[in-house]
Amino acid sequence: MTSLLIHPEEISKKWIDRLVESKIDCLGIHPVGGYRAHINLEVMLKDMKTEKFRNLLDYALEKGLRIEYEMHCGSYLMPRDLFDTHPEYFRMNEEGTRTSDMNFCVSNKGALKLVAKRARELANSLYKSTHNFYFWLDDKKDSHCHCPECSKYSASDQQMIVMNEILKEIQKDIPDAKLAYLAYFNTSLPPKKIRPDKGIFVEYAPMERDMKKPSSDVPDKEKELQADLLNTFGKTDSKVLEYWYDNSMFSNWTKPPKKYVPDFDLISKSVDYYKSAGFENISSFACYLGEDYEELYGDFGLPVLEFGE
Ligand SMILES: [Zn+2]
Q: Model pTM?
């Protein structure tokens, strides 16, 4: 399966037609991340109830696309305003202070239970979503919990604890639900102490590589990491999330968007590489290419990406 991830406010009929013409299987909806990720997610959830949004997604479905939602939601799943009454639910930073800046304490049973409950509600609320879910944690460096209990676990193991718990809860309503383990940044390494439960798949998002080179052109160490991830999680449902069309990254996540020129040769080489490495599904961010982009620069064009079989 192939997908491109677009900010919700950038979805348009034109974008949907472009995905169909390019033989992409899935429209990935990705609210903006960063410190405001939970607020951006709330905005999307509100917009998702409007006729305008639903009509667009219905149009995408009519055209044969699938719909998925991929987002950072640590601060959404653990509401920040609980810090006053339940500071123990929140993470301890490296200085030993509980803080509500990012994520939460994964060793606190009450915290985990609440996060899983909210994830279940979130999964049920996503309009016409497939049963593949992507509830990524907050993503600043060292934003996991450093309390004495959590310190026994790496950031990757902490993420694995949370995702296993969430999936179990979502499956109460959606028995065939699957959930991504995001291998990215702090959690690039596979978990070592906690095993993924059935239904967890790996989503590999190599944000820190050199984007001017094809994805095959990475150090051997990175290739070993990819193999290690596929060993840990299995190849079934494994997914690459790339940045080939991520004009938000190329614009340094600041609007107005910069002019974007896709390197088709680089993309094609990269896709071939990932397929040969054993990844089943291939996707890329494609943000900052909405109507505001086209007003500035005109249509950027999109080739038929031979992502799939
Ligand atoms: Zn903790």
A: 0.96
